[in-house]
Amino acid sequence: MELSESVQKGLQSLGDQTVLDRCSFPVVVDACFRSLLFSRGDPAVLDLPELKHLDKILLKQIHAAATTFILEAVKHNADKSTISFSLEELTFNTERVETFYTTLKFHFWATLILFVMSSSIGRGPAHIKDVSWRLQYQMKNGQLDKVNEPFYLISLMLFYCTSAFARLQDLVGKLKDAAKSVEKASQV
């Protein structure tokens, strides 16, 4: 994943143990996911007692970088090795990489749905037309002889309202209004 210089600097601060201690790190990571999934831009998401000792500007830079990285990881469907490599390259230690990845894995599907829904072209987000799912059981894979884990396959059928489609809908609405007006005028 290619990251801008400002995102790299923010992530380096997130990984720096002198900036965020062992207790503050998971709180910041969790706050980043909460801001993406639940708060809808509420600035109070970073107003936590565990983070009061941090410089507000630095905290906002870390937050912006971490949320950008989260969305990039979801966008590229990054696996653990890609995330680990990217974060270790930015001076994250193994414990912080594991904490970040575990949190990302926990919130992955919700973040992916948010990402897909907000990345549509046109006036509004995509609309879910249909959902299909199935439960599967993985017994082994290429790396391990025994995995023995259930997992869900979820497919979303999305409908995107593009600007051309929206204009067409507006035209149809205007034509219906005109037809009603003509009908009323002919009855008089």
Automatic annotation (TrEMBL):
InterPro entries: COMM, COMMD3. Residues 125-156 form the COMM domain. GO terms for biological process: sodium ion transport. Belongs to the COMM domain-containing protein 3 family. This is COMM domain-containing protein 3. It comes from Oryzias latipes (Japanese rice fish). The lineage of its organism: Eukaryota, Metazoa, Chordata, Craniata, Vertebrata.
